[in-house]
Structure formats: structure tokens, C-alpha cells
Known about the structure:
By secondary structure, this protein is α/β, with parallel strands linked by helices. The chain is built from 17 helices and 14 strands.
Amino acid sequence: xxMKRIAFISEHASPLALLGGVDNGGQNVYVAELSMQLVxxxxxxxxxxxxxxxxxxxxxxxxxxxxxxxxxxxxxxxIPKEQLLQYMQEFTFHMLYxxxxxxxxxxxxxxxxxxxxxxxxxxxxxxxxxxxxxFHALGLxxxxxQKTADGFPPERTVIEKHIVEDANLIIAECPQxxxxxxxxxxxxxDRIAIAPCGFNPKEFHPVDKEAAxxxxxxxxxxxxxxxxxxMVPRKGVDNVIRAMxxxxxxxxxxxxxxxxxxxxSPDPAQTPExxxxxxxxxxxxxxxxxxxxxxxxxxxxxxxxxxxxxxxxTPWYEPFGITPLESxxxxxxxxxxxxxxxxxxxxxxxxxxxxxxxxxxxxxxxxIQLLKDNALxxxxxxxxxxxxxxxxxxSKVASQIQKIYNTVLTGEQKPAKQPVKQLIxxxxxxLNIMNLLPAFKSSIV
Length: 445
């Protein structure tokens, strides 16, 4: 069998990054796990991501069949993703130059996020390589919820609309994602395929609750709610804290663990959102019941999921949301916002509950109901494990993605509107094309 070579572009979300920070979350996991599963299906994967540290090697042989390639695009330091668009021309150039130097060719590019898709679109024009895109989030949906707090440049919407027409195929992560693409961007339903996020059953599986609590030094007598993920306002952790204020009056020894942040210990100076949330807990007079842990290594997350009685995720909006899957895989029921991917992955009243995102009293009632009904809790726990194992393993996701790739590679999908140009066959041809980027040409000639 001819091994297919795929390039992933994930400009701000490297599989090598520590999770839990402002810009490190589900996309990092998606890129890492999907690449490893696709190798098992006979693909070779190169992941192109932006160099954000001057000492990082250009190429990291990360896993068998998976390389991470660090591309120069702006200064080699951390830059918030909202400020990265200005460096995507440079990213395009250095990715093409790397391909030219190493005589690399790809059968397909899989772009992750709109800026990566812009790079993929440029490479498609220059080299004729088709691409698919997983947006992971949509600018117009973000603006709807964040309004003036959205820090992305207005060009994002224009770029996304171009990508929707230009990509060979769009991968939506759930039905809501597909609806948003069609409603807000006029996307053609025939050029959208749905493939969800997943979880790794070797990494996330039921662990004895008592053992997990002993490992984490959590009291066996406490009732524990868990919130785990990026510390940004849209994740709705404030909603969970306000629900705690209601629930504490009905549930004894109730505790909320908040896992995530930019540092290993909770530091408001490094993670301003933690400071804001701590103040809300003080205002609600429940500071002693809300414990901020800072970020935690991925290897210990299963113990947090297993130690909790219930996992809560009530973001304002959520393109998909991987943490609810991981929690259910560990046998912990989920109370989640009735939005986006969460309403796709959590089965209301079977694996947990779905609630409105901004109604802490409704959330509190569901917390109380779940914690006071042991039979319901046990049933939901069993249902949750079975549900995610049947539908959301990364292996199953990779099989769906493989079919999507094959539709593009065999030319079966409805064509994109933009014409494909001639292939680049040598370095001279690359330099001719890159005359469009004179500011960067001088750095390699």
C-alpha cells in the first residue's frame, strides 16, 4: 500500500505544549491524538506549528510516524493567538521553504483553526495541494458571545468566509458546528463532513474513587465537583461558583476543584482569570469550598476525573469540548451547557444533565439532584462509560477522518470554487512564487 503523507498545520496549538493555559487546550489534544491514530492507519504525519522558543529544534521526531516541525513566524516567543495573523505570510513562506529544502510532498493538508487554513489556502494556490479544515472555533460565533471582548482582528471573518469556499472539504465537529457554518458563512452542506473529537481509553478509564482521592489527598467524606480546562471567562467557571453558593446550603461538605491555569500553582498574576474567580468565591462567601489547583500534568487528570462526584462544564458556547468525554470515560457524570458539542456528547438524563449556560440556580438544582440520588448517579456513571466507548474513541474518530481524506484524495467531493494552480517541482519555482513575499525572500537567498 502506498503510504500517504499528510501535513497538519496548527499554528498556535502544538502537541508538545503543556495544557491548561489560555491558548493550550482541546486543539492541542485533537492534533496530538488524531496524528497518532492516523499513523496506525498507514499515514505519515508532519505537524507544522509556530516556533515560540528560540531553543526549540526545527524538527522533533515526536512519535513513530509523527514529526513536529517548528516554523519561523514572528519572534520566537509566546504571542497570544489573537495577535498571530500578521505572521501567517511568513509562516507560509517558511513552510514552503522547508518542503522545498527537504524535497517534501504531501498528498493532503489538514488545517486546524482559521490562520492555519489561510496558510493551507496559500499553499494550495502555490503548490496545488488540496486541504481540509477543522476550524475548532468560528469567529462570528465567538463575536456573538464575546462582543467587544473578542480580541481577534476583523479580518478573521473575511478569511473564514474565503476558507469556507476555498477548502476542499470542511470538517465540522458536531451538528451545531455544521449549522453555524451554513447559517453564518453560507457554507455548502455537501462540502461539510462531521467528525467529532475523541478520548484515549488507555489514558482515560474508570479508576477506584477512594484510590484516586487518596492519591490526590482529597477527603473521602467530601462531595466533589470538578471543573477542568482553560482559565478564560467564556468557559463559565464563574457560573459554577455561583451555583456552588446555592448548592452548599443543601449538600454538606461540598467542594469545587478548579484545575487549570498558566502555572503549576494557582497564581492570579500569571492567570488573571483565577484572580477574578477567587474574588467571586469571596463575594459568595464560599472561598473555603472552592479550591484552585493550577494546571496539572495530563498523566494525573484521570485521577481528578475519578475523584470527582460530578464534572461540570458550562461555557457560553463550545465548538466541541473534549473534557466532558474524558470525564465520562472515567465514569463521572457530566453536567454541561446545552450548547455546541456538549449537547452532542452528553446525553441529557442518561450520562448527565444539560443546562442553560448562564443560570446558576438551574445548575445548582441538578448538582443537588445528582449528589443526593445514589442510584441515579451509578446509572449515569455506567451509561457514560458505555456511551463514550461506543462513539468517541480517537480510533473511531480517525476512521471517520480517514474516510473524509479519501473523499478528497479520490476526487469524490464537490469541488471548491477556487482553481488549483500548477505544482511546485523545484526550488527555483518556489522562489518565483514567493516573490509575492519580498520581505521574507531575503532571509533565505
